[in-house]
Specification:
A six-stranded mixed sheet has the order 1-2-3-4-5-6. The mean pLDDT is 90. It is 23% helix and 43% strand. The chain is an alpha+beta fold and 79 residues long.
Length: 79
Amino acid sequence: MLNLKQIGSNQTVLELGKTQVFFSYETPIAACVDGHFYRTKEKYSSTTTKHINKWLANYGDSFKATEVNQSFLNELLKD
């Protein structure tokens, strides 16, 4: 099932079954796939970095996400 939720100003989560893709503005920047978390290696604005950190912080202070190339996140959105 496809579900789109705005969770903050310029912050959106797209749920695709067991996968969640987190967007800052219109760019996918992080994801949770089968309980594993990923974040882009790409450097964006400080605001986008804050968005990533805030989203990941929802899962605990010691939470670590694997850094991946932007293409990994983009591929999650392809049919």
